[in-house]
Amino acid sequence: MNTAPNDALLSAWIDGELPPEQRAEVEAWLREHPEDAVRVRAWSADARSLRSALDPVLDEAVPTALTQIVWRKAPAVLPNVAWTRWAAALALFVLGGAVGAGLMWRVQGIATTAAVAPADGWVQRAAVAHSVYVPEVRHPVEVKAQEEHLSRWLTRRLDVPVKLFDLREQGFELVGGRLLPDASGPSAQLMYQAITPPGAASAAAKAERVTVYLRKPEDATPAAFRYEQQGELGLFYWVEGKGPKSGPTGYALVGALPREKLLALAEAIYRQDPSRP
Amino acid sequence: MDAPTAFRQQLLGVIPSLRRYARSLVFDRHAADDLVQTALERALAHWHQFDQRRDILVWTISIAHNAYIDDRRRHARAALVEPSEGFDPDASQPAASSDVGLQLDLVKALSRLSLEQREALLLVTLEQLSYAECAEALRIPIGTVMSRVSRARIALRALLDGKGAMPPQGTLRRVV
């Protein structure tokens, strides 16, 4: 390094934030410039004293007041969400006259269902559907993966685009799908199982299986990834917003897998989502 | 919908780190735990906004940081004083000295850093957050994290060397 590294660079070197090339350059500089090396050593020493001064807090017993807060039950409704919808409905009403009034009636309807029927209802149904069909040996699915019309059929019945996600890169292949009743209409279940090496086909019944549950949500609001653990079952669920070619879709991925493995599958599905550009 | 058990367990897991972070911000044990309490309450009220692909510690620290800023703003307004960057070290002394292991000189010097510098330095050295995570928690660009951390290091060293609050201008070089 010909020019002196600035202090920010030296400091980032301590924190291991430099790419290999820059790191090597800084190290070469420090070897040749002992006065800078002394400064950098002093900063590292300060970091160590800061840790030894404040680390004992980690070993203190956590006050029970704090743990109690974590277990306290929160109010069941989400007043903010309902309020925002009301405001939106009101704005539409003012702007759109008769059309606005019609919309307000609709939006208000959505707000009410959101308050009384939170997401856990359909996520619960996804978990139950998983537990019912995953152990099936002869009829795990209604329509097998090989049949071309599977995607078209489910898309038509659900009124949301059903894409047969490719999870082979994550070690899972599609078994097939089925149509299921949900609270407010049909939902679909896609079943995947871990790819078994050739010759081990008889073990297929015991292969790991995960299911993807899809539905048209009552509430069009996109929602972030959420995770829930129910016994040995892990669930990732989220709602994708309206895409350029499609309406919103609710997804729940269910499987008795470690969280990280399930997350990798959820992310693969998220990336392949047909409503995403 | 109430926060699921898994989320509550995640929150329980970060309490010790949150307490340490809060203690390094406000020094006094009780004030720090009040801040943790506020952060936990806010996290529970907004649990549905937490994206499970993110780190829960970074998320809760971000909440605690905002709570602290709100708190300072409220107090500054109520007391009708200039919002000063430096923490009053004398006010924190009795509380700090009653805590086992807190080194007075270091804590005093730390309290004299601006909040911006102190927080960036603490998140990186104490919580061992990466610059990217620190940037996420404080909602500032990574380059800003980098320059704040280095300026905090220089200022802290100057204070411990007894050279006053600011290092001589000559040692400050341009930040990338």
Describe this entry's structure for a reader.
The complex is a heterodimer of chains A (277) and B (176). Chain A is α+β, with helices and mostly antiparallel strands and 277 residues long. In chain A, 47% of the residues lie in helices and 19% in strands. Chain A is built from 9 helices and 7 strands, in the order αααααααβαββββββα. Chain A has a 7-stranded antiparallel β-sheet, with helices on both faces. Chain A is elongated, with a radius of gyration of 27 Å. Chain B is built from 8 helices and no strands. Chain B is mainly alpha-helical and 176 residues long. In chain B, helix 2 crosses helix 3 (56-79), helix 4 runs antiparallel to helix 5 (104-112) and helix 7 crosses helix 8. The chains are: A alpha+beta (277), B mainly alpha (176). The interface between A and B is large, with 53 and 59 residues.
Question: Which characteristics define this entry?
Answer:
heterodimer, A: 277 residues, alpha+beta, Phosphorylase Kinase, domain 1, seven-stranded antiparallel beta sheet, 7 strands, B: mainly alpha, Butyryl-CoA Dehydrogenase, subunit A, domain 3, 8 helices, globular
Count of beta strands of chain B? 0
Strand content of chain A: 15-25%
Query: For the residues shown, what is the average pLDDT of chain B?
Result: 79
Strand content of chain B: under 5%
Assembly context of the chains: heterodimer
Total DSSP E strands of chain A: 7
The CATH architecture designation of chain B is Up-down Bundle
The Rg value of chain B, from CA coordinates, equals: 17 Å
Q: Given the C-alpha coordinates, what overall shape of chain A results? A: elongated
CATH domain topology of the largest domain in chain A: Phosphorylase Kinase, domain 1
- Total domain count of chain A: 3
Give the structural class of chain B: mainly alpha
For CATH, the homologous superfamily of the largest domain in chain A is named as MucB/RseB, C-terminal domain
CATH topology descriptor of chain B: Butyryl-CoA Dehydrogenase, subunit A, domain 3
